[in-house]
Each structure stands twice: as C-alpha cells, then as structure tokens.
C-alpha cells in the first residue's frame, strides 16, 4: 500500500480511538482497525480500565482468523509487557498478522520501541510513524505522566484579541461562542480533574462538570483553590459543596485557614487538602506532589487571572488552551489574562511549542506545551527571565 493509503486507514483508527474519549484512564486512548484487500473488516478501541486493549478488541470483533495479507493499523505501539490483559504483541503474533502499521511510539522510556522489536523478531513487517503527530497528540495526559511521572497541569482561558478576559466591570459572559464553549466541555471530559480559584466560585458558582450533548453529566475531581476558605463563609454554599458530586470536590487551602471551616467542609463530605505555605496561597509544587500521591494524571485549570498568573510565576503550567474571540476592548482597565511577570525582551517571553490551532465558529483555539525561558544569574541574585 502507498503512504496515502496508510494515512487513510490510520485516520480511521484515530476516529475509532476518539469514540472512547476520556473513558480509558489511566490507560491511553487507542484505536485499531484490521484491513483486508483494501477494506476495513474490523475495528476496536481501548476498553475502560481493566478491559481489553484496542488490538484485542479489533481481533475479537473480526471473529475469525485474519486472511493472508491482512494489515493491522493501530494508533499506539502495541504493548509487549504482561499486565491485566496480557501483551498485545503476543495476540498479534498468534493471530498470524504479517504487517502492523503504527502511529505513535510508546512514551514509557522503558517500553519505547520494544513492541516493534518483538513483532519484527516474529517476522512481522512493522511500519511506524504514520500520522505520528496526530496519534501522539491524542494522549497528551497519558504521555506526560508516562515521561515525567507527574500530572499534566493545563490551563484554559477565553480572551479577546487584545488579551482581555473581562471588561473593567467584570462582564465576561460570554466572550466566546457556543461552539468554543462546547469544546471546553469536551476537554473537561478528558481530564481526570478540574481546578478553579475561590474568586471564580464566588462570582460564577460553576458546577465544574462535563456536559456533552447526547451524554450524561460527568464530574471530574473538582479542585477549589481557597487559601482563606472564603467559599465556606458564604450564606449560600456553592454547587460544588452541595451537589451530588460533592465527594469529588477537594478544597485546596493552607495551614493559615481556619480549622473550623476545614471541619465543616469535611462534615459535608467535601475533601480538604491543607498545604504548608508562608502565604495564603497554596504552592503549586506542593499541589502537584499531592496529585502524584492521588494518581491524578492531569488537571484542567479554569481559574481566573490570579490563579493562572500564580501558575506561570511558579513555572508550574505545562499546557495552555487559549480561545480567542474576534473582539477588541481597547481598555487598559479591562481584565488581563496574566500578570506578574517582568518581560523586557522577546527572548524572555514564555512560549508555546507543538502548537495546534482550530476554528470554532469565529473563535480560534490555540493550544500547546508551555516553554519557559532559562533562568540567569545577575549580581549573585537569581532572576527568572520573564
């Protein structure tokens, strides 16, 4: 088959993988299709945790031995280690498939390329790197956890063309249109956790759930950053403390907050993480460490400018989703997206890498990994460029 043929069938496998969007954690989303004589005859996607992987699902769906010349297309390198479902390389070899076309390589350093080696040693032709960027991008959270052993901390913001998140009066609903807001819910469904600040809770009283048309309401773990526990001292407690998902709410506070409020939250069924801090803000590095302990692989931050600025200032933001609407406020007192850095040259700017852009109606989503400038030493004092 030609390169365009391989890409065609890999796009089919990607579409199959996206059908299980957000349903496979902590495993990656993977799609597999079996092609015979230029036609897809079976397909499969990763089942929820503990279930069969995509390759096994596709072979099971076929219901018979693949014909001579069959090709397996899979978005991620087949696993070669024995977990709860066994090694996928073994089932591929046993099925008699002689060609496997793969998108992305396994991100785990100890596994990278080993699946390819096992298949080739069994006499199977392996073609890798087909639509590699798209296949890798499919599993942003899984990849980060596999490589770094830490959660992917991502932030979302909706801004005007001149970088403002609200008018000087605070009016911000809605900067972006319905299509962009629907995409936010799609990403909420992917991340195992979402985070906002106390100001957002007090102003908007959000539910912090994923509501996708045609699907049931789903709640990730919901973090509320509230160093002073202002949200508890409200006559009308927010949704996240009282709704049916309140046991999935975690308030992140500091040792400076009142212990009476901490007890009140826990009595309501709300979890509390108390972080040691010299200020009334919980350090993001400590929060990240707690997420590792809780095995939370990703956090989607929808906080306001204060929370996001703290993230960037502490160099703890890994990924950014930026929705831009075709609006201009042209008001220096309108609310900016980020503050607190001193960027004197473009070389000191925080940048994005591996950038993806997508259009939602008139709004543009730009997303990518956050790259910080190097630190330099001046007069024996360490300054962070930017």
List the helices and strands and how they pair.
Blueprint: H1 3-18, E1 31-36, E2 39-45, H2 54-62, E3 71-76, H3 88-95, E4 99-104, H4 114-121, E5 125-127, H5 132-137, H6 140-148, E6 152-159, E7 164-166, H7 178-190, E8 193-197, H8 198-204, E9 221-225, H9 239-242, E10 249-254, H10 259-267, E11 271-275, H11 284-293, E12 298-301, H12 305-313, E13 319-324, E14 335-336, E15 351-360, E16 363-371, E17 375-378, E18 381-384
Parallel strand pairs: 3-4, 4-5, 6-12, 6-13, 8-9, 8-12, 9-10, 10-11
Antiparallel strand pairs: 1-2, 1-3, 7-14, 13-16, 15-16, 17-18
Mean pLDDT: 90
Structure summary, number of beta strands: 18
Largest sheet: 9 strands, mixed
Helical coverage, percent range: 25-40%
- How would you classify the helix and strand content by structural class? alpha/beta
- Tertiary shape: globular
Radius of gyration, rounded? 23 Å
Q: Can you write the helix and strand succession as a string?
A: HEEHEHEHEHHEEHEHEHEHEHEHEEEEEE
Distance between the termini: 50 Å
Strand content: 25-35%
- State the low-pLDDT regions, or none: 377-386
Strand order of the largest sheet: 11-10-9-8-12-6-13-16-15
Q: Helical segment tally?
A: 12
């Amino acid at each position: 088959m030609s390169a365009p043929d391989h890409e065609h069938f890999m796009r089919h496998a990607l579409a199959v993988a996206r059908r299980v969007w957000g349903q496979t954690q902590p495993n990656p989303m993977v799609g597999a299709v079996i092609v015979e004589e230029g036609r897809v005859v079976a397909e499969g996607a990763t089942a929820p945790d503990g279930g069969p992987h995509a390759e096994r699902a596709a072979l099971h769906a076929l219901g018979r031995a693949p014909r001579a010349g069959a090709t397996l297309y899979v978005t991620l390198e087949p696993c070669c280690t024995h977990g709860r479902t066994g090694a996928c390389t073994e089932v591929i070899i046993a099925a008699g498939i002689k060609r496997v076309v793969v998108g992305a390589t396994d991100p785990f350093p100890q596994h990278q390329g080993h699946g390819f080696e096992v298949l080739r040693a069994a006499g199977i032709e392996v073609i890798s790197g087909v639509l590699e960027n798209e296949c890798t991008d499919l599993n942003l959270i899984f990849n980060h956890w596999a490589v770094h052993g830490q959660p992917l901390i991502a932030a979302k913001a909706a801004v005007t063309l001149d970088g403002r998140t609200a008018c000087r009066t605070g009016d911000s609903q809605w900067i972006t249109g319905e299509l962009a807001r629907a995409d936010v819910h799609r990403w909420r469904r992917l991340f195992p956790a979402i985070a906002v600040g106390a100001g957002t809770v007090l102003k908007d009283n959000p539910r912090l759930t994923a509501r996708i048309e045609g699907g049931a309401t789903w709640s990730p773990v919901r973090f509320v950053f509230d160093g002073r526990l202002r949200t508890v001292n409200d006559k009308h407690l927010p949704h996240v403390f009282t709704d049916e998902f309140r046991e999935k709410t975690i308030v992140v506070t500091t040792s400076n907050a009142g212990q009476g409020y901490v007890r009140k939250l826990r009595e309501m069924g709300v979890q509390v993480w108390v972080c040691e801090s010299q200020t009334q803000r919980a350090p993001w590095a400590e929060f990240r460490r707690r997420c590792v302990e809780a095995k939370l692989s990703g956090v989607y931050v929808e906080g306001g400018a204060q929370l996001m600025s703290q993230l960037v200032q502490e160099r703890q933001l890994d990924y950014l989703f930026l929705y831009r609407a075709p609006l201009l406020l042209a008001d220096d007192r309108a609310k900016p997206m980020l503050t607190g850095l001193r960027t004197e040259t473009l070389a000191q700017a925080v940048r994005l890498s591996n950038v993806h852009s997508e259009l939602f109606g008139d709004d543009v989503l730009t997303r990518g990994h956050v790259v910080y400038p190097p630190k330099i030493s001046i007069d024996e004092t360490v300054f962070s460029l930017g």
